[in-house]
Amino acid sequence: MFGTLTRQADFAAVYAQGRKRVGKSFVLFYLPHAESRYAVVASKKAIGNAVRRNRAKRLLRELLRAVGGAGQGIWAGHLLLVARAGILQNDFTETRGELERCLKKLLSV
């Protein structure tokens, strides 16, 4: 697919300089960059125990695959998805539509 963000400096840059869209299920941060990389985050405070956090992260990664991503040239840059509390209760297709709308708004600005 594409690379993952791993360095703290990359996360800090995306949080500080990137554009943000808040959805019902997640918060999406985007920072234009030459290489396409992503990260998914699920905090213990927002999501809960390890099982629920891992489920939320798997769901976010699958949403990125379903929407397409850098492989089809939809976006080029650093993308950070932060899970919100209601992500596990929402329907997959509804959350997918939400991600598509957020990406469209971010990339059209």
From TrEMBL:
Keywords: Endonuclease, Hydrolase, Nuclease, RNA-binding, tRNA processing
GO biological process: tRNA 5'-leader removal
Entry's Gene Ontology cellular component terms: ribonuclease P complex
Domain of life: Bacteria
Catalytic activity: Endonucleolytic cleavage of RNA, removing 5'-extranucleotides from tRNA precursor
Gene Ontology MF term list: 3'-tRNA processing endoribonuclease activity; ribonuclease P activity; tRNA binding
Assigned EC number: 3.1.26.5
Protein name: Ribonuclease P protein component
Lineage summary: Bacteria, Bacillati, Candidatus Margulisiibacteriota, Candidatus Termititenacia, Candidatus Termititenacales
